[in-house]
Design a protein that fits this description.
heterodimer, A: 248 residues, Rossmann fold, six-stranded mixed beta sheet, 8 helices, 27% strand, B: 752 residues, six-stranded mixed β-barrel, 22 helices, globular, disordered C terminus
Chain lengths: 248, 752
């Protein structure tokens, strides 16, 4: 635990107002994610795991507490401040893929790079590289609606990685996929993690969580368990871990 | 920049049809505005068209002898010369009276500069030396047509039997009788016959300038060059001023329509953009999660939708120019002057950007969490739907009624998007029926008398006897129109002594009462405003040197002289002034004024027909038709957007509805009911508002223009019913298009 952590959250609180009644979603979370770490956040529905990840990426505003990204305080940023920060440092993957429907696969992947100030040529090269890595080269000019769910999520992953962000936040990335596609996506996540990518992944699927270095369990907006997974448990026979192993 | 452009390009590519519709809507509005403004400008300022078409001369110089043409041509700023032509005064004997005219020599071949524009008949021909061409407004006043005899008496007393060959217009002289004497073009030979003495003719030369603003300078130089020869000079400014109509009423109407058109355009754009933004909430949220800032999203949306609007404006300006240049060559000669053109471009530009900015700003405020898909707030049945259930309407209608108001803001936008054009259409129809009312009941606008007889050569009594003897003349009122000097006024005001206090002329009194006694008077709104007096006040004035004090007892609708007219009985005037100058003839119901006029002409009476204000305002009708068409298109475009939006909202529900067992036809009925209900609400609200507002607005404009309140008429019930039926029918048809397609399509039941 040395060096600057990728994420540091201090006493993070989120309270929604629902019809004038305050509904606490996250109640005072302290959390630290080291650079290059793969953290899974688990918990039942309504435990506040998505809210936590959204706050860490600045999509949602915290009620109180502090968020430090890469040693810089981020919770005091304005909405546009967060937007600029996300461009450079944070990639998002969502449950429902959220590709821009009107844009081709290629455009979807190039968009963040262009937004980050890359030239069209740099953006195209990066896109070609990413789609090649994800095995989607021949689908570059397709519309998102023409792709299967797994393909869409792989494109979303490519888009999230387009700017080589320090942090990848994934909110139930396999929640809407069948087991085969789940395996593919997890394998890709594992690959990028091995290349040093910091990942925070929200899931309620224990098998998915087993991919991570560390699992944080939430219940009613509080951390109830936080621990590194023992190496042995990370390689049970006959799970997705095998796929990663074989490829590696 | 690049990322935004990429997004805009992709979005436009995905919805070409909608984008085209937006462009067409804006283009249609701008085209209508340009066309209406051009027609208005041309109608109220006929000089521009005549001058341009006739390639007129800016300056006319009358000299005793033939001027030094070479010197004039050499003047700085002069590009061309017309003439010099000889001109001679003469008299026309017309139905027992002598009318002064100016005969002007002109070549048989059309000249390059200052050519008269032949409107009827044929031009002069050397083979027919007795032919003349008469200036049209003069011919109208005298009832002359091609073929009419034209007996001219020269200064030497000899009379020559000439014939009218044709009627022509010219931008070089104002209309008769404002600009007298009447202008008559003849060949040089004819002029020599009528006026053989060279000393009694004068020479007229026209100068065409490179820059009209140099007029004063060139006049000074010309006067210097011609040294003492100049008898008088007239310039284009005087001609234009004398031709210009009072266009305040027209201008106000056009402004009203223009504003309505702009509001409707703003609504259409706001609705289209708002609908698009609502449909893109998920994409916008995704973009924000990728790092688009709020401002970036707003400006990208403004750029995308604003560019569509601006393209529409440019297209509209171009099409408006083309239409006025090619489709209306007879009515419009000169394109709209740069001032109003720029005003339309700028005004619509601002409206476009403003109406796009509001929904774009809303789009920019989209929270960046794309997880929650855009969905209408679900749950409760609207009150309307509950009523529909209570009265046991078919389920499709109930569901439609429930859908109609689920989203309050878009529902309100849709209703206003239909209601505002509908309101303006109703106001337009109100203007139409007001004009109809002018024509059908001229007595309500102070024109009970259709004809005016002047005694001319006859004695007043003889004229009166002859006029009253006509079977179609119901009443005769003696009248005089002396000018009166009013204290504190630098100019005179027109007074009208008509009828006698005991037997007053049937003025349309709208406030107060009619005069009944000597010393009582009624006035137009313009006069009340001018003098700052009210009904019941006394006014002191001087007529022909004699002081006169009258009490204003009522206000009348007064279409003439901007309403600045004071009317009273002839017996209120001093005895020396109370001599009838003319007789106003009120005709029997159903009598044709033109027929009576011809009959009275036959008895050598000098009769003129009163011009109905509706004839002068006939240009409004064209404007009304054009704007009604555009407004209807805007309303329908709004509806199309709204129904597409409603469809998007309910796409997931369609599968459920079908699963519940609704037939495709019932699904279609649900969708049509959802948007159709809003359309009907809009149509009814708009028509009601327009019908109740139109009379008030027209009266307001009447008041502003001095005519006075009391002219406004609401559209007739038949007109309103027809417009409501057409509007509702068209709206239902429009909503049917997307509904039909949706009801037949197989709807996938899954998240995107």
């Amino acid at each position: 635990m040395t060096g600057t952590p990728a994420i540091k959250a201090i006493n993070l609180v989120k309270i929604y107002q629902s019809g004038g009644v305050p509904v606490p979603a996250v109640r005072g979370i302290d959390m630290r994610v080291e650079s290059g770490e793969f953290v899974a956040i688990m918990g039942p529905s309504g435990s506040g795991k998505s809210t936590l990840v959204h706050m860490l990426g600045g999509l949602d505003v915290r009620t109180s507490g502090e968020i430090w990204l890469d040693g810089t305080r981020a919770d005091t940023l304005s909405e546009s401040g967060w937007a600029l920060l996300r461009r450079r440092k944070v990639g998002f993957v969502f449950q429902f893929f959220n590709l821009v429907a009107n844009m081709t696969v290629a455009d979807n992947v190039e968009l963040p790079a262009l937004l980050g100030g890359a030239t069209p040529r740099q953006a195209r090269e990066r896109r070609e590289y990413l789609l090649g890595e994800l095995g989607l080269t021949e689908r570059a000019s397709a519309a998102p609606a023409q792709l299967s769910g797994g393909e869409q999520q792989r494109v979303a992953l490519a888009r999230a990685l387009a700017n080589q962000p320090r942090l990848l936040l994934a909110d139930e990335p396999t929640g809407n996929l069948d087991s085969r596609n789940t395996k593919d996506v997890l394998r890709l996540l594992s690959d990028v993690h091995r290349k040093g990518q910091t990942i925070v992944l929200v899931t309620h699927d224990a098998r998915v969580a087993s991919m991570a270095d560390r699992v944080v369990s939430l219940l009613d907006g509080e951390i109830v368990d936080d621990g590194a997974l023992p190496r042995a448990r990370r390689r049970p026979a006959g799970t997705v871990g095998d796929v990663v192993e074989l490829r590696g | 920049m690049r990322a935004e452009l990429r997004w805009i390009r992709a979005d436009l590519r995905a919805r070409r049809g909608q984008a085209l519709l937006t462009i067409l809507t804006v283009a249609g509005i701008v085209t209508a505005l340009v066309t209406a403004a051009t027609l208005l400008e041309d109608g109220t300022n006929p000089w521009r068209g005549l001058f341009t078409r006739g390639n007129g001369a800016h300056i006319w110089i009358h000299t005793k002898d033939t001027p030094d043409v070479v010197a004039l041509r050499g003047l700085d700023g002069v590009t061309d010369l017309a003439g010099p032509y000889r001109s001679a005064p003469a008299t026309l004997a017309s139905r027992g009276r002598k009318v002064p005219i100016a005969l002007q020599e002109t070549p048989a071949a059309f000249q390059a500069v200052a050519r008269p524009l032949l409107r009827e008949g044929r031009w002069l021909d050397v083979r027919d030396p007795d032919a003349v061409v008469v200036e049209r407004s003069f011919a109208r006043e005298l009832g002359l047509a091609p073929g009419s005899p034209f007996p001219v008496t020269g200064l030497n007393g000899a009379t020559h039997a000439l014939v009218v060959a044709g009627l022509a217009e010219s931008g070089d002289q104002g209309f008769y009788p404002d600009w007298a004497p009447g202008l008559v073009w003849t060949l040089a030979g004819t002029l020599d016959v009528v006026e053989p003495a060279a000393g009694r003719t004068e020479s007229v030369v026209g100068l065409r300038l490179a820059d009209p603003d140099d007029t004063d300078l060139v006049v000074q130089r010309a006067v210097t060059v011609l040294d003492n020869q100049v008898q008088r000079v007239s310039t284009w400014r005087e001609v234009r001023a004398s031709m210009e109509l009072d266009n305040r009423l027209l201008g106000l109407l056009l402004a009203l329509f223009g504003i309505a058109g702009l509001v409707a355009a703003a609504l259409a754009l706001a609705n289209a953009t708002g609908g698009r933004v609502l449909g893109q909430v998920r994409d916008i949220a995704t973009l924000k999660s990728l790092g688009f800032t709020r401002r970036q999203v707003t400006w990208t949306l403004v750029a995308e939708h604003g560019v569509l609007g601006l393209v529409g404006i440019v297209a509209g300006l171009v099409v408006g120019r083309l239409i006025t240049a090619y489709a209306l060559p007879d009515t419009v000669v000169v394109p709209l002057s740069p001032g109003p053109f720029a005003a339309i471009a700028l005004g619509t530009g601002l409206v476009v950007l403003g109406s796009v900015w509001v929904p774009a700003w809303g789009g920019g405020r989209t929270p960046p969490i794309p997880a929650s898909p855009a969905a209408p707030p679900r749950g409760h049945l609207s009150r309307l739907a509950r009523v529909a259930l209570l009265v046991r309407l078919p389920p499709a209608l109930v569901l439609g009624a429930r859908d109609a108001f689920t989203r309050r803001t878009p529902a309100l936008l849709t209703v206003s998007g239909v209601a505002i054009p509908m309101m303006m259409i109703s106001i337009g129809l109100g203007c139409w029926s007001t004009l109809d009312d002018f024509i059908r009941h001229p007595e309500r606008v102070g024109q009970a008398a259709a004809l005016t007889v002047r005694p001319g050569d006859l004695t007043a009594d003889e004229a009166l006897r002859r006029a009253a003897a006509d079977p179609d003349v119901a009443a005769v009122y003696p009248g005089a129109e002396p000018d009166a000097l009013v204290p504190w006024q630098t100019r005179t005001v027109r007074t009208r002594a008509l009828g006698r206090s005991a037997d007053p002329y049937p003025f349309p009194v709208v406030e107060g009462r009619m005069y009944r006694d000597r010393g009582e008077a009624v006035a137009g709104q313009g006069l009340l405003d001018l003098l700052g007096v009210h009904i019941g006040d006394r006014v002191r004035m001087t007529i022909g040197g004699t002081p006169l004090i009258v009490r204003i007892v009522g206000r009348v609708v007064e279409p003439e002289h901007d309403g600045e007219v004071l009317s009273f009985g002839l017996d209120s005037l001093a005895a020396k002034d109370a001599v009838p100058q003319f007789y106003s003839l009120v005709l029997r119901e159903g009598a044709d004024p033109a027929e009576v006029r011809t009959r009275l002409h036959g008895m050598s009476l000098d009769v003129s027909q009163v011009v109905n204000p509706a004839d002068r305002l006939s240009i409004i009708r064209m404007i009304i038709i054009a704007l009604v068409v555009v407004l209807a298109l805007i309303g329908l475009a709004n509806l199309l957007t709204a129904s597409a939006l409603g469809l998007r909202d309910h796409a997931p529900d369609l599968a459920v509805l079908k699963a519940m067992g609704l037939t495709p036809r019932q699904v279609m009925a649900t969708l049509v009911a959802g948007t159709g209900l809003l359309a009907v609400c809009g149509v009814v609200a708009g028509t009601a508002a327009g019908a109740s507002l139109s009379a008030v607005l027209i009266d307001l404009e009447g008041r502003e223009s001095g005519v006075g309140a009391g002219i406004g008429r609401a559209p007739t019930p038949g007109m309103l019913a027809a417009s409501v039926l057409v509007a509702v029918g068209a709206s239902l048809l429009i909503t049917l298009i997307p509904a039909r397609r949706a009801a037949r399509a197989r709807v996938p039941h899954s998240a995107r």
